[in-house]
User: Which sequence fits this backbone?
């Protein structure tokens, strides 16, 4: 704010021009009294002389009223008399002017006093910080040098007062009253904001629609449209977005609403959902996008690398997305993770960046949601990039039955898909919900909670697993048992171990012996067999048989506990195609179901028969034999897998390759690694640090990295 400092200027006036008077009239005596600061006498004499000697007496009175060292100081009176002086001096006769010259009353002195009075008047007005007082100064002192400064100060003070009122009506009155104020631009901005805030203060849809209708040129139109958009789609559903599009076709968010409808409807990124969308929403204004995405959805995208940068190619090797990324992952629900500048984001099949590269970690979209991490904290976003779960957690698990385990600090709780914390983070550990219940732990003690967070089965166990088919294995007092979903015991905690059920039976251990529980929880086969790591790995019954062991000898029993294969073997494998591999004296052979030895004991390893062939190992080399024991594929390979779809992965000379059932090479053993794709339609080949794609259908490489 502008301010003036009063200057001590009255002594600059005519104190040295009054001569010694031997005779004088009232004017002369008044000037003499003024010279010696006899203000009372000077004022009385000037008031009597003002009619006859108007210019001189008025000047004297103006001087008295201007000076602050007397009780008559009054700047308004000083100004009134200096104006009288100015007017009278212009009309004064030459003889009068000559007479006044003796007292220093000349044009320059009158002008100087008037200027000083104006300055004093402005200083006093400015000190009030009152725009009305300043307006009075401006109205009266039209010729003051400080008039522009006074106007600027008056306008500034008036703007500050109007601004502090917080009312668009008051601000509008300011603009109308002071149209030339320097603050007019700022005032207009404040007016627009106050108008917008006032008319939409209740936050209701009707208020925003009325504002947009009545003030179409407001600079806050776009913001009002944005908030209206948010109000109309509180749950981000297709129905809400579509209703918004129909109701507010002129809103600039209509395009975004349409894209959100499309994204939500085609959430799984499948060709089926895209085609359905095209049929259901023929009014979608971007049909070219739908047509493009139909073609893209039917296209398989293969992550590919070139010069240490990643992109995507199709099954012909054509580049679909350029090699610009530090890494990419496969597409899931129409989006693929990609990396750039050390951060992760997502791209669509059109190559558009749909989620910016701003996360340290992301997980593939599942059900339209992705778990992401930034600044060491995890959250959840949807495919539109909206944060559904705030990034405040150390861990977030996948959603299960509508809830996901989260870790905040060192405690676990649960959130819903709306991002809200449904069950507080109170637990030492927590598992996913299964069949309406979840296992939770508090300081080493386990129990179960329901979906509303209430304790369904009290904390009492040393360990518990999730509910499956209405049952859960638990551990209490160092022993294992099984409970039902109400918490009552299906099998009491009296076993040293209970395995999963397989074919209606669960392997149960007491001491160092095992038997089997049936589906009613009763001991169908008493614990009389030796328990070992090998027995644990087999996990009970397969095709009606279970491996048993006594004194390191193994055989099979059936579901009734009857011995089907005597305990004559050091080890035994389950039957496959009528043959079972058996181990004696460190060598493997094969028996049939009648327990006849069909293939002699000569192998270091013997696998299952698959399509009449079994993988065997001899002298550290793998090959294949038929059911007569004849070698059908020579035992020459360092490693070999089982045949699947007529193909077998083998290693020779430290390099991988693929053979067919006739031992012909589909791929020569020259690759560092061969990775089958999940679809089983192609392979990823790696050699010398480079990669290539191999299509199984026509046994051809359809793309390879430079230098492969």
Assistant:
């Amino acid at each position: 704010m502008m301010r003036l400092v009063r200057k001590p200027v009255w002594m600059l006036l005519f104190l040295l021009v009054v001569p010694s008077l031997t005779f004088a009239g009232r004017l002369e005596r008044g000037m003499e009294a003024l010279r010696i600061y006899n203000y009372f006498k000077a004022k009385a004499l000037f008031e009597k002389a003002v009619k006859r000697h108007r210019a001189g007496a008025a000047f004297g009175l103006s001087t008295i009223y201007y000076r602050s060292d007397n009780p008559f100081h009054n700047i308004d009176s000083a100004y009134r008399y200096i104006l009288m002086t100015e007017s009278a001096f212009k009309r004064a006769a030459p003889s009068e002017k000559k007479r006044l010259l003796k007292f220093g009353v000349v044009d320059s002195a009158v002008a100087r006093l008037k200027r000083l009075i104006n300055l004093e008047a402005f200083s006093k007005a400015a000190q009030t910080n009152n725009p009305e007082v300043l307006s009075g100064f401006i109205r009266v002192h039209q010729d003051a040098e400080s008039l522009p400064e006074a106007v600027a100060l008056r306008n500034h003070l008036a703007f500050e007062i109007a601004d502090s009122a917080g009312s668009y009506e008051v601000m509008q009155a300011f603009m109308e009253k002071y149209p030339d104020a320097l603050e007019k631009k700022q005032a207009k901005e404040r007016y627009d904001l106050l108008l917008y805030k006032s008319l939409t203060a209740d936050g209701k849809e009707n208020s925003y629609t009325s504002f947009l209708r009545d003030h179409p040129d407001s600079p806050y139109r776009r913001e009002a449209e944005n908030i209206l958009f948010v109000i109309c789609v509180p749950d981000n559903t297709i129905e809400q977005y579509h209703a918004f599009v129909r109701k507010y076709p002129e809103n600039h968010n209509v395009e975004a609403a349409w894209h959100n409808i499309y994204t939500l409807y085609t959430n799984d990124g499948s060709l089926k959902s895209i085609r359905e969308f095209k049929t259901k929403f023929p009014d979608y204004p971007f049909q070219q996008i739908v047509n493009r995405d139909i073609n893209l959805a039917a296209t398989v995208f293969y992550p590919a690398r070139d010069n240490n940068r990643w992109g995507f190619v199709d099954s012909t090797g054509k580049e679909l997305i350029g090699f610009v990324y530090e890494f990419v992952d496969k597409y899931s629900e129409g989006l693929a993770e990609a990396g750039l500048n050390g951060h992760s984001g997502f791209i669509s099949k059109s190559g558009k960046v749909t989620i910016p590269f701003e996360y340290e970690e992301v997980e593939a979209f599942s059900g339209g949601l992705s778990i992401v991490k930034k600044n060491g904290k995890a959250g959840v976003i949807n495919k539109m990039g909206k944060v559904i779960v705030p990034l405040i957690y150390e861990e977030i698990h996948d959603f299960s039955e509508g809830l996901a385990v989260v870790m905040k600090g060192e405690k676990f709780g649960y959130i819903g898909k709306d991002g809200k914390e449904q069950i507080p983070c109170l637990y030492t550990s927590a598992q996913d919900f299964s069949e309406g219940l979840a296992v939770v732990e508090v300081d080493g003690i386990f129990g179960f909670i329901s979906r509303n967070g209430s304790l369904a089965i009290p904390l009492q166990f040393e360990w518990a697993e999730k509910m499956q088919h209405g049952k859960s294995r638990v551990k209490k007092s160092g022993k294992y048992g099984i409970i039902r979903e109400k918490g009552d015991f299906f099998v009491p905690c009296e076993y040293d171990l209970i395995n999963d059920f397989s074919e209606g039976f669960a392997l149960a251990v007491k001491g160092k012996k095992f038997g089997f529980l049936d589906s009613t929880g009763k001991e169908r086969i008493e614990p009389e067999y030796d328990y070992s790591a090998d027995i644990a790995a087999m996990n009970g019954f397969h095709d009606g048989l279970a491996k048993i062991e006594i004194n390191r000898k193994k055989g099979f029993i059936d579901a009734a506990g009857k011995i089907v294969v005597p305990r004559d073997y050091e080890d035994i494998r389950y039957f496959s195609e009528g043959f079972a591999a058996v181990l004696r004296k460190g060598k493997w052979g094969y028996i049939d179901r009648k327990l006849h030895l069909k293939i002699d004991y000569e192998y270091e390893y013997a696998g299952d028969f698959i399509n009449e062939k079994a993988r065997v190992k001899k002298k550290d080399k793998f090959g294949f034999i038929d059911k007569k024991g004849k070698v059908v594929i020579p035992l020459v390979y360092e490693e070999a897998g089982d045949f699947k779809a007529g193909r077998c992965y083998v290693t020779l000379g430290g390099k991988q390759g693929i053979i067919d059932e006739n031992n012909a090479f589909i791929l020569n053993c020259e690759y560092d690694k061969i990775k089958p794709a999940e679809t089983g339609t192609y392979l990823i080949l790696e050699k010398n640090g480079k990669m290539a794609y191999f299509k199984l259908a026509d046994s051809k490489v359809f793309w390879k990295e430079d230098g492969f």
The chain is about 30% helix and 35% strand. The two ends are 75 Å apart (CA to CA).
